[in-house]
Amino acid sequence: MASRRVAVYTRISDDDEGRRLGVKRQEEDCRALANLRGWQVAYVACDNSVSAYKTNIVRPEFERMMADLEAGLVDGIVAYDLDRFARQPTDLERAIKLYDKRPGVFATVQGDIDLGSADGRTMARIMVAFANKSSMDMSRRQSRKQRQLAEFGMYGGGGRRAYGFDDDRVTVRPTEAKIIEEAAHRVLAGESLTSICRSFNERGVRTPRLGEGTRFEGCY
Questions:
Q1: Is the torsion defined by CA of 30, 32, 105, 116 positive or negative?
Q2: CATH topology classification for 5-136
Q3: pTM value?
């Protein structure tokens, strides 16, 4: 029998530093599991810093993997844990329907879930329901906290600092403030954002994001 070809799926919701350490650990463990089962890893589908709970967010690599599973380009999926794969019941049901049409393998490092069996599907549905509730509870608590901090005029924390400010999000960084002022004058003078960003990159102006070197993203 030919070796199964599987897609390894890795995901983490928040990677503020952009170092991808969490998904790299997941990939290593998933590859080890696939090797133990004698499966061939076709590719790694990685959605780094992408939520699986928020319904308005598309996970590009998840969608690619699901399409390949439906087309028979891969024989199954290996993920670190079920909640890395799905936190919305609708995503799990999509997978179950695909496994109905084209039986394959599904494994997680934290414990196997057989999406081809009634017991496995029941367990998966329970686990995803609990993961969904956990995300919902966390979202509610965070929203309440942010509202309270806003009422007191306090910074809520989280995320990268804005360019031009220190980590407290209040204290201005003079060197970066000058860059912002320069950019504003150049825009008002009619220069394009692409040109401005390119010149900043060439001059080695650093962005707040760690591990990304000096490049200003999304400008060209």
A1: negative
A2: Rossmann fold (3.40.50)
A3: 0.61
